Amino acid sequence: MPAERKPSYLDFDSEKYPWKQDIDYKDKPEKYRVGKGEQGVLICEPYKSEIGQFWRFRTPEVAKKSSEKIFGMFSNYLRANDFVGADMARKYLQMGYTRARRYANYKGGKKYDKDKDYKPLERGTGSAEKAQSAEIFYTAYKLAEANPVYKSLKADWKKRLG
Fold this sequence. Notes:
This protein is mainly α. It is built from five helices and two strands, in the order αααββαα. A hairpin with a 5-residue loop joins strand 1 and strand 2.
């Protein structure tokens, strides 16, 4: 039987984290790193403020409106040749999927019980409505990831800057 894992945020080391809150990534895009998944999404300004205000998944209707708005921003960033903005919008779409899935899997979106040494809570106690929201975001996220212009910019960025 595998050992129970605790949440990774318990051992978070902000000094080693490549994204910093005091950097304006529009002025200094060369400081941006693609990273894995959603890394940096809640730090990188001004994109966090530009995109985050539209990120919602409470109901499928809200998720549809939100994902369409963020996908539109993704497309606009690509048209402006702003890879960092496009990647951040893609991350918000991905995060819409993963967070809504967490609420679909766990009641209240809580995965661990911090009062019981971060023991995992029971899975399958969440909301079917959030599962629908997750699917809406997943579709938009996969469309963004598959965009040929985005894929080309991302490959070039990772090769040049990481």
